[in-house]
Design a protein that fits this description.
250 residues, Metallo-beta-lactamase, Chain A, 7-stranded mixed beta sheet, 7 helices, 26% helix, globular, binds zinc ion
Length: 250
């Protein structure tokens, strides 16, 4: 695990890539006195690692915000008790698809991340923006008007190579819209839930453009197209192209 200090009281715990995958997972942690706010939890192992590291300084996790409700973002909640959980009201839709019903109660949020609503935690202001695309319940989080956490709407490997967007066909148009909306944050630092922080406006715009090109090719063709056809005119080599077949699995 690589612990990166983003600024005072703001850390990224970046975990190594999973075997045979091209990505690891990121947990972002904000600190206020002896309390922590986590953005996403990854799986139990990663949450335990973060809890242990925070305990060294007597810091306890008090709040969790979920960027969306896929297993690699929520499962660590099992390791946390007495925490306030924030997430999209569409989280239930995602749980219905991927999580056994008898486990839903472990992940349901106490507070909904209403569009444009703001919470404060110590010196941090966090604003929630609905960003359905990668999933129905995806949100972006603006932190101190400098950072934009994008969950899985932009993903890279841990060395910064782009990952193919992961999306179901019914959400491709939403994903394009979510990416279009990101353009206005090109001067922010983009925090993905998998991969590296993007800090350069040109790189951010190129990352958005290539993903939109791929998604547009899917929409324009209406019927199934191969990954090579869908990648036409993309100016980068996406990793994890096997996700392309999942687009049509509905
Ligand atoms: Zn993910």
């Amino acid at each position: 695990m690589n612990k990166i200090q983003i600024e005072d009281n703001f850390f990224l715990y970046q975990f190594p890539e999973f075997p045979k995958m091209h990505f690891g997972v990121n947990l972002y942690v904000l600190i206020h006195q002896n309390e922590a706010l986590l953005i996403d939890t990854a799986f139990e192992t990663e949450t335990k690692t973060v809890i242990k590291d925070l305990e060294k300084n007597n810091i306890k996790v008090k709040k969790v915000i979920l960027s969306h409700f896929h297993g690699d973002h929520i499962t660590g909640l099992r390791e946390l008790s007495d925490v306030e959980v924030y997430g999209s009201k569409n989280g239930q839709k995602t749980l219905d698809k991927y999580t056994p019903r008898d486990e839903h109660h472990l992940y349901l949020p106490h507070f909904y991340t209403e569009d444009f609503s703001v919470i404060h935690f110590g010196e941090f202001e966090l604003q929630f923006i609905a960003a359905p695309g990668h999933s129905d319940c995806s949100i972006n989080i603006i932190i101190n008007r400098q950072y934009l956490l994008v969950g899985d709407n932009i993903m890279t490997s841990n060395d910064g190579t782009p990952l193919l967007p992961s999306v179901l066909y019914s959400n491709v148009k939403n994903h394009i819209l979510a990416l279009e909306k990101l353009k206005k944050y090109k001067n922010y630092k983009i925090l993905p839930a998998h991969g590296i922080i993007l800090r350069d406006a040109d790189i951010i715009l190129t990352s958005i453009k290539n993903r939109i090109t791929y998604l547009n090719n899917i929409i324009v063709n209406r019927e199934y197209i191969t990954v090579d056809e869908a990648l036409k005119n993309c100016q980068c080599n996406f990793l994890h192209q096997q996700w392309h077949e999942d687009v049509y699995k509905e």
